[in-house]
Amino acid sequence: MAGLFTLAVVCTRLTPQSNITRTASDRVLWPMFWHRACVVTTEPGMAVVMSEPGLIVLGSGPAGMAAAEAFRERRDDEPVRVLTADVDMPYFRPPLSKEFLRGDTDDVAMYPSSWFTENNVDINLDTRVTEVDVHAHAVTAAGIRHPYSHLILAGGSSPQPPAIPGGELALTLRSLQDARELRDVARRASSAVVIGGGFIGCEAAASIAARGVPVTLVAPDDLPQQRRLGTEAGRKLLRLVENSGVRFVGGAHVQEIGSDAVVLEGGVTLDTDLVLAATGVAPQGDLASQAGLSVVDSRIVVDAHMSTSHPDVYAAGDSALATNSTAGRPITIEHWQDASDQGAVAGACAAGAEDDWAEVPGFWTTIGADTVKYHAWGDGYERSRLIEHDDGFTVWYEAGGAVVGVLTHNADDDYDLGEKLIHAARPAPVAM
């Protein structure tokens, strides 16, 4: 009869031994630890999972997985589910532009295969969340509705291809899937052009050059990271880039990307069969904005406990604009360890703890054989000073009479001291 449909209800009780990892293409995502699950089908291709609410984490990067770990450490009796658009089990991203791209390793897994079963954490790969309903305490993915008691948004950011003719022809590097494609193309490439002089661009360019491929790194600044770190630091980074075998072309803007060439403004053409765009990322804040959460410049606004503007909803990582309790102001982050730190706070607080994000942001980068380390609040400085060492350097950054950043190469003591001085808002140990 027209207008009628068949309602089928399947209910089951699952045990930890029922652990199954599913993808969105499986339609019904059986949970490994959801104590009760009912699948209600109201029409072909549409299923609604009604289960005992637990923690849901959106994203399987450093923030999301640190959140799941921290929550599970404190709550061993509640379901934990990770929903991720990634097709691969969680992996470390830092090696993708370095050891993995060079071909030195394939092992980038964040956990052994048994970890999820042993910790009763359910993960659903290749699963895109289409709606977050903070009032109903539920998220929807592939037509399946997942109720939650607490929600952690850790979707990270996505690479942004250059907005120029042919920009879609450039490869990007964010996921393991991206890295596999880039490495495969690099195996066959006779030359490469990397667009973007940030740390990812410098790392990837050096790694491709290490494979014996001639590489040209094109950047709008005259020196790598000049706008962010200053001219003196830029000169030092340029030397490291060139020492890795990469040709640097600064003060250049790409006009067009073709199938076998990159055209710069002014008409210079760079013949190449590999183009990598390391031209920045965009935070994934759309779902939060659509859900009515407070969002600024695509970043989800959270306090030092990673709490959003709605109860029981937290955010961490690249997609968050979090208040750092030490800095006393919102700080944006873009690096692995900082995202992991924030995720751990979010997971702990979702489990009832009172943790806060107080660490000074920082990271390491490897350009060829050289490692550079950086601690900073990242929101600007008033003056800087370069200190030369026998086999390295330190750049101190100050604002308001206090250290706000330190960049080092072969100067680990300064790197460690810099973190302490930034945290304590103390002056630099050298005359500025």
Main beta sheet, described?
8 strands, mixed
Number of helices: 10
| CATH architecture descriptor name of the largest domain | 3-Layer(bba) Sandwich
Strand content: 25-35%
Parts with pLDDT < 50 across at least 5 consecutive residues = 1-50
Number of beta strands:
29
Structural class: alpha/beta
How many structural units, i.e. domains? 3
Distance between the termini: 83 Å
| Percent in helix | 10-25%
What is the CATH homologous superfamily assignment of the largest domain? FAD/NAD(P)-binding domain
Describe this entry's structure for a reader:
The protein has 432 residues and is of the alpha/beta class. Helix content is 22%, strand content 32%. It has 3 domains: 165 residues, FAD/NAD(P)-binding domain, CATH 3.50.50.60; 119 residues, FAD/NAD(P)-binding domain; 45 residues, no CATH class. The strands form 7 sheets. Strands 2, 5, 6, 7, 8, 9, 10 and 22 form an 8-stranded mixed sheet that branches. It has a 5-stranded antiparallel sheet with strand order 25-26-29-28-27, sandwiched between helices. Strands 14-13-12-18 form a 4-stranded parallel sheet. The N and C termini lie far apart (83 Å). The N terminus is likely disordered.
